[in-house]
## 1
Amino acid sequence: MNGILEALDMGKYALYVWGSFGVTAACMILEPLLLRDRLRRVRRRIARLNRRESNPS
Amino acid sequence: MQNRLINWFRYASPASFYPLAGRLAPIFWVLAAILIGIGLYMSFFVAPVDYKQGDGYRIIFIHVPASWMSMFIYLVMAGWSAIGLSFNTRLSFMMAQALAPTGALFAFLSLWTGSFWGKPMWGTWWVWDARITSELILLFLYLGYMALVAAIDDRRRADRAGAILLLVGVVNVPIIYFSVKWWNTLHQGATIKMNGQTSMDETMLLTMLIMALGFWAYAIAAAMVRVQSIILEREANATWARELVGEQA
């Protein structure tokens, strides 16, 4: 455990290294989630259109 | 020969490409996760401390791959645009549009990580240096392309206008790449040169290449999911799309 913390200790560069890796990680986690939502939304919209047409009221 | 041509053109139709994109996406997500996982592990636990820049240099493991991807994705988009304009294939334009936000993201990350690297090493977050400015222009090209395509209601006109913008903007990519050679800049020279020479420690180089491959797989996966959305959004009234989605989504 100490070894891991030691390896991750960036000393005086902590702000810069973690500022870079942190923002990159956040973006590369967020984008796939947004993409999944967008695909779900359009699939739901098409399913709604289908339901409306199969039982018009 | 005849057969192979037919097979290739089969996938030029959105209806037959959609399921292929759906099969490819998970493969590339997994590949991206594995490669980036290994890359991150090597970035912090394997790659040695730099004799000059200490731990600060580790930003290179995301900065260089992100910068490469921002330029590479732009070239791929321009390639799709050229194909789309030549053969009038709708899917080519959709591919270009599916790549754009991911390309913009990498251009942003290139500038962001560059800024966070520049501050401790050069003492400034930003300089109007040739390479940094041309990378900023690349980000604006991505954003301008996305805005242009979104602003035109007629899909076919939007596709074509966007494609032409991309092709004109291509001139910027060699400017970014060679800027460090053509001008006297604050930014350091290329880490890996075209002639195969490198100025880097082998472990560091390997880490950077693994990260670059991971980012590459990520970009493909993201583009595959986004192109599925674009196809369905555009073909919402087509019978195949209706049957594919069914009544439960």
## 2
Amino acid sequence: MTNAPHDFAVKMTGIGKSFGPTKVLDDVNLEVRSGEIHALLGGNGAGKSTILKVLRGVHRPDAGTLEVLGKVLTEHTPEESKRAGIAMIFQEMSLVPTLTVAQNIFLANELKTNSGLIDDKLAVDRAIELFKSLDVDVDPMAEAGSLGAGQRQLTEIVKAIAQKARVLILDEPSTALSTHDVEKLFAFLTKLKAEGVAIIYVSHRMDEIMKIADRATILRDGRHVITAPLSELTLESIIEHIVGKQSRGLSGIQREDTRRSETLLELKNVSGVHKPRDLNLTVHAGEVVGIAGLLGSGRSAIARLLFGIDQKISGDIVVAGKTVALNSPAEAIAHGIALIPEDRLRQGVVLEHSVADNISLSVFDRISKRGWISQQKWSDLAAEKIKSLKVKTASAAAAVRTLSGGNQQKVVLAKWLASDPRIVIFDEPTAGIDIGSKSEIIQLIRELARQGKAIIVISSELNELLAACDRILVMSDGRLLRDMRRDAFEDPTAGDHTAAGNMQFAERKLQTILQEVRNHG
Amino acid sequence: MAEALTPSPTPSLATRIGLTDWRQNIIYIGFVGIFIFFAITLGHKGFLDTNNLLNIVRQTAPIAIMAVAMTYVLAAGEIDLSIGAVAGLASVAAAMAMDIGGVPLGILAGVATGIIVGVINGVISTRIGIPTFLTTLAMMGVAKGTSMWVSGTKAVPILSDGYNWFFGGGYIGPLPVLLFWMVIAAAIGHVVLRRTTFGRWVLATGGSETAARYSGVNTRNIKFKVLIISSFAAAIAGMLYAGRFQTGRFQLGEGDELSVIAAAVLGGTSLFGGKGTVIGSIMGALMIGLINNGLILAGLEFSQQLIARGAIIILAVAISQNRKST
């Protein structure tokens, strides 16, 4: 396939697309070669998802042409794109949990016996062959719903390949994966690349892009900024292209020491059912403590335990000097603990409700009298939070659905901050949002610390932890293995390093520690 | 997301001691258990007589046939509450048409009734987008009202012996014709669900509509078809009732939707879609027939039977939900 007569697997030229008066894409080019991994980069609202929807035939472009493997697409329907060999790997979307892996791989493409009946045995055999040839270890007889995130993703890709896809679109494929699974995924993608498959890779994680992509196309505000080989781009230049001139990324965030002497949260030998194990942890008022660890290390188990979702089986939890039992989220909230969940769309906000309604959701009792909601307090609260968190919304009455990812995240924050918690736990606070909003959210975390709150940040994005935290704890297999001050990550030999250079050094160091604790415990 | 904020799964006791599948088999265990219980307690009242046992089959057949179709509807993540009323309407339509144009027109009218109602349910649910729960609940009233109206709430006698033999009243040797109807419906239903693309797509649609759609399954079309199958099966059931009672009447099939849904859920079909077995549904129907029969022999009144049936449905749903969470 590498020597196919057409140079490009995908050739999109001069694509334009408007929704009403808003121009989402303006003269955008996207050219992807067969046998390359092509990163598609850009902040939220840059037009990444729109151009991919045009490619998938979901949207009809207003201008421009679209060629796939030398064939001009004219119908602009999902069916046409699929026939042309385009497949998008949706996050946990394309597998039916109640069917087996093999049944899923051949869904809508079933293998049949001579009599026309479905041949599940043959499907299993074929699936085994496919997995083997692609070096993937998944049980074809397992129900898809029982797979871990990594296996699910690999299965989805194998499914696309089984259905003759030649252009794969992966949108944030690593979000749900552990480092180990990400490595497996990358090895797998490299293998597909060698077979001539074109891969369009969308991610906010620059380290991954630098590692796996051959070339990159960067969009900003619906326009094409640059297409270049990764070898000609640096992290700095990529970030600069993505965010433009306004933002300096995460490295410029100031971390003044806001720690107070008062201890707000103390865990003494706390163990959960599986994780965490024997955890000791102290968080002071005004302190931001980060928890790093690979997926499955028990990071999120701490959040679940502190928020009363999981039960502890031994140990003591002390909140502001009082030993407490946290048997339910309601009890946790009563003790002043707030959790900003990772999956904000499902667990954090009601998308169809207005910004103001979402903000006031958890404090209706405080703004109401004898069951009647005070309109005045309600709108005051919303206006105050929208202003202090810089939520970009048309009005307080606009549905949260209409906001961008970063602003939705701010609404979640506003909702929890409305209840004035003493301890705030962030689980992946910036998952899937653009760098500009990321930096704003981290500044907000620092602001909360300044107000004297005790803060725990759980994140898989190391630069985010390093930018936000005073202390970083490293977990593996449910245990806390390192407790390091942020200073420990500075480069002692540095002096003339830029802020970005320092951040890179710190990130490499933390990454190394993460790998070390996993290997040696 | 694998580490999202859901409680970490603790393996249930059943899983740990290797009884993962006991719930899937509960219908068979329950069936045998209840059978033995009635055999002991009601044996002297004739429970074990061949006649009584075949009677259970005869009474259960229409429910069982509708339960086969309901398996598809539930597995696709939908529901059909109109089937009882459609059965009544089809019995009236068949009887009245037969009076005018003979047996062929009668059969045609009965079958057409089912298909027309199914198409209407399908159009309203999949084109306008009203949930099937609401569509079919409304259709229940419309179908019942129509059958009362056209028949003037009177019973319409069926005089064709041939029809009455074939649709429900007849025997082949010692075996009731209804047994054959049931077995054929079960066989077709089972093979289509397990071994054809249509059946697989039904399960996929109910398992995750988004995933099925993204995989290229026309889920709207699947939902449309299961609603037609359901109404068609209801019409057949109504015609079987008509044959057995030699009359078409709007009350035939009244309230059957509850028994049918209970039968399917008892048999292991998930109310949440994605899982279903036709054989299980047949067993569920037989179990409900068994219980009804036992309750009658035990001398319970109709009112008490209704209470027992309601309790069974709640039990069935409780079990099905439990499975969902493990």
